[in-house]
């Protein structure tokens, strides 16, 4: 397993990712999840996702990408925090918003058991 996968979101994906599903557009959470997160979480020990130059993002994008990562992999909060690093220089709320979606998904999973 390789060490680190780094992606500049604005450069390699979109400077304004939005939407949940493929029908919502080319830069939606479902595409980011399937094309970037899932393949690379299996291949690398850590993902570094740099949102520094992202101008904005949709909440549905974040939920589908990061809540979806938890849904698809079954990872714990500790796994998520140790394997996914979010970088941003411009948005102090991004990390807490992503963590909220991860926590919501983990809570849904626990309630199913």
Short description:
With 113 residues, the chain is α/β, with parallel strands linked by helices.
Mean pLDDT: 95
CA gyration radius, whole angstroms: 13 Å
Number of helices: 5
The major beta sheet can be summarized as: 3 strands, parallel
Structural class of the secondary structure composition? alpha/beta
Total number of domains: 1
Poorly predicted parts? none
Which term fits the overall shape? globular
Run of helices and strands = EHHEHHEH
Strand residue content: 15-25%
Query: In what order do the strands lie side by side in the largest sheet?
Result: 1-2-3
What's the count of strands? 3
Helix content, binned percent: 40-55%
CA distance, first residue to last residue = 31 Å
């Amino acid at each position: 397993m390789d060490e680190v996968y780094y992606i500049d979101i604005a450069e390699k994906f979109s400077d304004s990712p939005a939407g949940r599903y493929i029908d919502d557009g080319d830069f939606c959470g479902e595409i980011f999840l399937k094309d970037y997160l899932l393949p690379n979480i299996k291949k690398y020990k850590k993902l570094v996702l740099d949102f520094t130059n992202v101008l904005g993002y949709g909440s549905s994008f974040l939920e589908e990408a990061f809540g979806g990562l938890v849904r698809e992999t079954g990872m714990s909060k500790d796994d998520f925090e140790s394997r996914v690093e979010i970088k941003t220089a411009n948005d102090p709320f991004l990390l807490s918003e992503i963590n909220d979606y991860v926590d919501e998904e983990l809570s849904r999973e626990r309630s199913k058991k």
